[in-house]
Amino acid sequence: MVNQVNTYEEFADSDCVLVLLIADNSYVSIYCENKNIIEKLYFNALQNDFEDVQFITDENDTRTSLTV
User: Fold this and answer.
1) What pTM value is reported for the model?
2) DSSP 1-68
3) CB count, 10 Å around CB of 31?
4) Hey, which residues does 30 pair with through a beta bridge?
């Protein structure tokens, strides 16, 4: 069964392993339960000259919902 995940807290408490938010082909946010995977995605984006790449953590994430 698929359940809607609306907040980071719901994501963290769910069986969901990855959230991908995309708006207008230029704004992308990725949330991933697996630290190794998210680090690989982050460094891949840097190596491929993506613009404005940021590593978001619990300490610097200002998002209150998983919507764009």
Assistant:
1) 0.79
2) ------SHHHHHHSS--EEEEEETTTEEEEEES-HHHHHHHHHHHHHTT-SS-----TTT----SS--
3) 19
4) 20
Residue pair 64/9 in contact (Cβ under 8 Å)? The answer is no
Structure tokens belonging to residue 2 = 């698929």
Compute CA 68 distance to the chain's CA centroid, rounded to the nearest angstrom: 12
Distance CA(66)–CA(5), nearest Å, equals 7
Cβ neighbours of residue 45 closer than 8 Å, sequence gap 6 or more: 53
Q: pLDDT tens digit string along 5-33? A: 898 889 889 999 999 999 998 889 999 98
The token pair at 29 is: 């946010």
Give the Cα separation of 33 and 27 in Å (integer).
20
